Amino acid sequence: MDSLRGRLIVATPAIDSGPFWRSVVFMLDHDQDGALGVIVNRPLQSDVEDVLPDWADHVNAPVCLFEGGPIAMDSALALGVLRGEEGPTGWRRMAGRVGLVDLDGPVPGSGELAGLRVFAGYAGWSPGQLEEEVEEGSWITLEAEYSDLTSPQPENLWSEVLRRQTGDLRFWATYPDDPNWN
């Protein structure tokens, strides 16, 4: 499988419970050593201002922490989307205009980032694990759009990402939360 870095993996209805149910994951890294990403559609009740007050004015709405995944929920990482081609101090390119932002470094100046999100935790897969899950139909891999990372309504992102696809994938956007309701 080619590297999924910079792409989305979207949970299919085969994942019917747990932290990845209807999740949209932006892949930060994917190679022979495994895979790493953050769930971009799981806002938490915690405000960024309560945890990282200097960063609150730079985060896109909703101004809350996001559950990046079930691993290391006590740590934070931030993704920033550049406006232009050059990143501010403390920004490290991951894919295209998306990069990790050093939360211990200086806060970017206004206008340097088109978007910023802070995540508690991350999602990780051991070598070969994600490939197996894709093969068994738990995930579909899709192109990411920068707006996916900063959606003002992240709770709708799963269906929005599926709806913009072609063919039968579009129909999954209407899949009921509980298939017994159908």
Indicate the CATH architecture.
3-Layer(aba) Sandwich
Number of strands: 10
In CATH's first tier, which class applies? Alpha Beta
Q: In the CATH hierarchy, what is the superfamily?
A: VC0467-like
The rough form would be described as globular
The total domain count is 1
Describe what this molecule looks like in 3D.
The chain is built from three helices and ten strands, in the order E-E-E-E-H-E-E-E-E-E-H-E-H. Helix content is 10%, strand content 37%. Strands 1, 2, 3, 4, 5, 6, 7, 8, 9 and 10 form a ten-stranded mixed β-sheet that branches. It has helices at residues 48-51, 129-135, 157-163, and strands spanning 7-11, 24-31, 34-39, 43-47, 64-67, 71-82, 91-95, 98-101, 113-125, 139-143. By secondary structure, it is mainly beta. The mean pLDDT is 92. The chain has one domain (7-181): VC0467-like (3-Layer(aba) Sandwich).
Quick overview:
With 182 residues, the protein is mainly beta.
Record the SSE blueprint.
Elements: E1 7-11, E2 24-31, E3 34-39, E4 43-47, H1 48-51, E5 64-67, E6 71-82, E7 91-95, E8 98-101, E9 113-125, H2 129-135, E10 139-143, H3 157-163
Parallel strand pairs: 5-9
Antiparallel strand pairs: 1-2, 1-10, 2-3, 3-9, 4-5, 6-8, 6-9, 7-8
Give short descriptive properties of this protein:
ten-stranded mixed β-sheet, 3 helices, single chain, 182 residues, 10% helix, mainly beta, VC0467-like, globular
